Amino acid sequence: MFKMTKAKKAGVLLRFVAVFIATVIFQIAVNSKAFAGEQTASHNQFRVEVSGAGRPIILIPGLMSDSRIWDSLASSLSTHYELHKISVAGFAATPAVTEPSITELKTQLLSYIHQRRLHKPIIIGHSLGGFMGLWLASSSPNGIGPVISVDGLPFIGPIFTRSNDTTVQSLAAQAQQIKQMYSNMSQQQLIEQSRYSLSVQASTDAAKAKVMAMIETSDPTTSGYAIHSLMSHDLRQDIANISSPVLLLGASGGFDSDSQKTMVETLYKQQLSHLPHAQLTMNTQARHFIMFDDPLWLNQQVIQFLGAQL
What we know:
Blueprint: H1 6-42, E1 46-52, E2 55-60, H2 71-77, E3 81-88, H3 102-115, E4 122-126, H4 128-139, E5 147-150, H5 157-161, H6 172-183, H7 187-195, H8 198-201, H9 205-215, H10 220-232, E6 246-251, H11 258-271, E7 279-283, H12 290-293, H13 295-308
Parallel strand pairs: 2-3, 2-4, 4-5, 5-6, 6-7
Antiparallel strand pairs: 1-3
């Protein structure tokens, strides 16, 4: 029988190990590329940054803003929670997609929660992100934990009309006009258009500058589609499905008189009429970007609410 020397045996073994390692590396590379491609394809409506450890919190920004709005709050939460900071495609510096869709964003966020096996994640959202939090919890009441909406309502329509009698149907024509208008806007026109509402968004020059910095790199078409979607979706009855605790933090600092501030608070309360266990707390000094105008107050409200859920 042919016998190999020790040297030959060692050489054969080394070649076998080399081939085995190369095969494994190749397979890992193929699988990694496939997984990365799948992730990109299935979650193309948003990007996410994950940090911290503990119970998961998903932080969703609003219209024409990104995860930077949560910097102050995130630093307060990161030592006890695993933070998933979302940036929506087409808002701020996050690249736009060819088919922006708030409905698809909701579907992809639910898919992300399922794929990552996040057990009843807490949702904190601002404006459109607050609406999204309520939508996620309405659609998957057993899969979503507590929701904190920062100046985001179940239906945006009454903000324009100052009446909760407003319906999707009554705003349909205006919603379509807004979508068309934004679709035809240049980047410069978007910036100029947005300057008119800055006084409603934030109170200080520094806060306004932060808001504008994000608007300047947002996609007009995506913004138009998002506003149209908000005007076309009414969750006021759907929120009755939510079983988890809900906190709505409202801002009325953009209104001058006490009577106007009371009117806004009443409007917010009416939007929650189908969700009697929801809590409403108003900040009468801050404007829409509460996290820029009064970050300490916002952080305190969030931490206090989450502490009560333990």
